[in-house]
Amino acid sequence: xxxxxxxxxxxxxxxxxxxxxxxxxxxxxxxxxxxxxxxxxxxxxxxxxxxxxxxxxxxxxxxxxxxxxxxxxxxxxxxxxxxxxxxxxxxxxxxxxxxxxxxxxxxxxxxxxxxxxxxxxxxxxxxxxxxxxxxxxxxxxxxxxxxxxxxxxxxxxxxxxxxxxxxxxxxxxxxxxxxxxxxxxxxxxxxxxxxxxxxxxxxxxxxxxxxxxxxxxxxxxxxxxxxxxxxxxxxxxxxxxxxxxxxxxxxxxxxxxxxxxxxxxxxxxxxxxxxxxxxxxxxxxxxxxxxxxxxxxxxxxxxxxxxxxxxxxxxxxxxxxxxxxxxxxxxxxxxxxxxxxxxxxxxxxxxxxxxxxxxxxxxxxxxxxxxxxxxxxxxxxxxxxxxxxxxxxxxxxxxxxxxxxxxxxxxxxxxxxxxxxxxxxxxxxxxxxxxxxxxxxxxxxxxxxxxxxxxxxxxxxxxxxxxxxxxxxxxxxxxxxxxxxxxxxxxxxxxxxxxxxxxxxxxxxxxxxxxxxxxxxxxxxxxxxxxxxxxxxxxxxxxxxxxxxxxxx
Length: 553
Ligand code: HEM
Ligand code: SF4
Fold this sequence. Notes:
Blueprint: H1 10-17, H2 24-33, H3 41-46, E1 52-54, E2 61-65, E3 72-74, H4 75-87, E4 94-95, E5 101-107, H5 111-120, E6 137-138, H6 153-163, E7 178-180, E8 195-204, E9 207-216, E10 228-235, H7 238-255, H8 266-273, H9 275-286, E11 308-311, E12 317-322, H10 331-344, E13 348-351, E14 357-363, H11 367-371, H12 374-378, H13 385-389, E15 391-392, H14 407-420, E16 429-432, E17 446-453, E18 463-470, E19 482-489, H15 493-507, H16 515-521, H17 524-533, E20 537-538, E21 541-543, E22 549-551
Parallel strand pairs: 6-7, 7-8, 15-16, 16-17
Antiparallel strand pairs: 1-2, 2-5, 3-13, 4-5, 8-9, 9-10, 11-12, 12-14, 13-14, 17-18, 18-19, 20-21, 21-22
Organism: Herpetosiphon aurantiacus (strain ATCC 23779 / DSM 785 / 114-95)
Domain Nitrite/sulphite reductase 4Fe-4S: 129-289, 388-509
Domain Nitrite/Sulfite reductase ferredoxin-like: 56-120, 311-374
């Protein structure tokens, strides 16, 4: 370090002392002893490079996230997850917003068994957490959506192979998330990833070339940012896509901020540099010029809802999307899904951003038989509209940051709203139990950031409550939701949101006028009135500038 080197945060110093990937042999050593007290604090942090987080209450049991590019897995891989959940990972199995499985309650001594079981079916948890390129996401209907421009599967697989276990990228300033879209029915989550590829086509040397536009600097958490288009087009060629991904990631590695953990994501560098300067640096790293972005692009639509029966682009084939309650799935249900994928499909299962599960490649002639199977009566393809897209973060009892239980609370809330309002369009409600935003609440139609408030009866038991963010969106009109109310008691929420959604339904101009469009036309004060808080300033009280409701004394 020189005198001009900025002061590094403690995690940076740990990473210089020993790379995250180098902790593997220590994990085996710790597992052999089985004594959690032997694990040093810095090694515990490095466990993340192998997809492991110390579950609450930090007494020797772990959460493990699988690396599953694009959320696509085979039936055999699903069976391996079942085996783990029934033997060494007895906690809840969750489908996550980045299209993978998360297992809980793994004892330190059982970690090697978990690694070996995953490896035996070609899976791993490598770099599923940590300051590294994470699981690459895509559309859950990649390669099967009828109106897709490019099949993104070879691209996200190539990126995954390039990034995983590569020491060039094992010490990035912070987590690094990548997405590849195909265009078509359900766009991927390009605006909230650090690096995203979205399809386009342009004329180069007299020929129409299909390829990707490139976006950088999206990310959620405390200060959400939407990705910026850096005005680059690369042809749909595996080497070209990997080459630019490498250059962008190295620029981030070398110039990204390492002073403060909460100011280290790529989004902060992009906010300071702007897209053009970042582009110039990428060109420097590449050593050759880049094409400007394509303007001929497909519409980017994001509904988050691929539950149901949909025709694939392949003739006579369908995918069937199953509704999993806020991503909580039992080992028996996964086993049955694997069996059905073998019997009716092509032994393939997919996981979606809305924490649901898809069975693709179902022949038209077998649809009725599949729909009559017992599993589809439990995880219903025609489940209620709001429950289909409700998303909840891990929350209590597993997450150390959590203030409230999320999965059941969000599921019940969505169910109550489905009872109150019959919607014919998707409405995405996402709940996180702290500002980290693991449920992606900032880009939901209705985003909920849970917390607790004092109990009015004066007792020590705090009550669940939530901030309400409205009008978030992905796709072409990507928007960060506006925080219109804070600390709303959970017990009042179903009624308040019921009023709001009913008002939307009554006021919308057509089914195309979706919740986010309508919310954009309303002022914060209007939205608060629809939430049932009365006029902005009434005899009952007043809204503060921060958005909380002060009752008149
Ligand atoms: C400093 C701590 C953390 C921060 C800042 C953080 C932030 C985030 C953010 C912003 C996402 C959004 C996903 C996306 O970009 O698409 C996410 C995803 C997620 N987070 Fe966290 N998180 C933290 C810790 C945790 C912990 C402790 C848990 C669980 C015990 C957790 C569980 C998840 C899950 C399940 C996802 C879904 C994504 C995946 O599969 O990779 N997070 N996190
Ligand atoms: S949002 Fe907060 S409470 Fe929820 S899983 Fe993420 S870190 Fe935990």
